[in-house]
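Incident review: delayed structure delivery

Summary: a single-chain prediction request sat in the queue longer than the usual turnaround. Root cause was a stuck worker, restarted by the on-call engineer. No data loss occurred. The affected request and its eventual output are reproduced below so the record is complete for anyone auditing the incident later.

Affected input:
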Amino acid sequence: MYLVCNSVMETSTKHSDVLNLLLYAAINNPKVIYCKSSKHEFTYEQFVFACIKLSKQIKKNNLRNRYVGILLPNSISFLLTYFAVLLSGNTPALLNYLLPNTALEKLLDNLQPSLVISDKELSNYEFLTVKIEDYLDLETSNIEKLDNPCSDYDVGAILFSGGTTGIPKQVNHSHQCILSMVERMEWGWPTKSNEKWLVVAPFTHIYGFLTGVTNPLLRYGTVFIPDAFEPTLIVEKLCSERITVFGGGPPAIYQALLSVDKFEKKLVPKLRVCPGGGAPFPMAVHKIWQDRIGVPIYEGYGMTEIAPISVNTVEKGTKLGSVGKAVPDTRIEIVDIETGKQVLSAGETGEIRVKGPHMMSEYVGNKKETTQTIKDGFIYTGDIGVIDNKGFLSITDRKKDVIFVKGFNVFPREIEEELMSLPNVASVCVVAKQDDRSGETPVAFITLKSQLDVSMLKKHCEETLLPYKVPSDFIVLESLPLTPAKKIDRAALKNKLI
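Output delivered after worker restart:
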């Protein structure tokens, strides 16, 4: 079974590169606030003037290559640095601020940037610090006459895939590729002029990059950047700033906000777009968010290598529990797990492979990983999924997370869904534990809303699941560990079993 959308884009960016998105917005809506934090705010016009000043500073550094690392948390400084690097004629590499220093140093050793812009230092690299206070009072210039050094096939952003173990893989996306992503995000989750965006996903993550850096520019939106991810703080900003687009991302984010007392629809009357992705959403999260907040979570699917892939939309249809239908000019196929060749029929579960005009061409400097991931023009996602007879794609699990019990495939999400259906359960993650008799057994890590006897969890699973799918252990934690991208850290949980 394959899923393909050949729809013509109703809205094209009509831009040559990412920097042009910003310049166009500044020329046509100069006084609209582009970005705002708890301390500072910039109109589009002011922001471009600040970019001009910083780009001149970057140019003063005699760069031996075009790579400039950006090692900053979500902030106005991050946005300013990204566009200033582009304006200087160089290539921005988006480095995860939360990576441990040892992992970061290995990444930098591979990347070899000429300059790193950051508020912290690492050995062996030239650093430049950006202080927003230095860019508040600036000389004006004619933005329309500003020289744009970018072209469509230049690298518009270097991102990194993975990173929970080993060195993240380098993905270079051209301006053309990024604009294709922007178009497909807008197709899936259409926005209006002057929307107010609040994004919590890291700007170094493809979802955070699109929803926090590029897509707000398309409709002259305002980006609100919280000081930190603290659920009470985020809820307060959603309310006080009258946010219309919330870039929440994975279910863990939405679950955290739902834990805030008295967070309900009347407090966020302007909220209208809530994209979701990054991990499968339990049905309970969809239902509770809809009931309390009054806005559906439109779940989608993507990855650093190609995003978005599929989206639930109002116009094209929605199916809870699925990640929607293919975005334009994108082909999705379900193939058998063992060979990756045979295309399966509707309703059959297998590995998801995908191709489209917005996919990466390679992992830079990593031929082995490239050949393992890109085959016959498709990106093999490593995700397990199924396409129904109406064309909706559902993610059942990660290929690498499949648990093999006595020769049977056990998909953690099936167990997680059953446990999440219990009203006392707040969150669940099921991982594999090595077992001498069965090969592997599933273990459930759980957080609770209120006290519950663990025996009740086991009883429920015994009543709803096949025997080999019932977890051998139920471990209650105060909270589940998260990766820097705010996904549940399965690797950390597996380490607890060693």
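Verification: The mean pLDDT is 90.
Action items: add queue-age alerting; document worker restart procedure.
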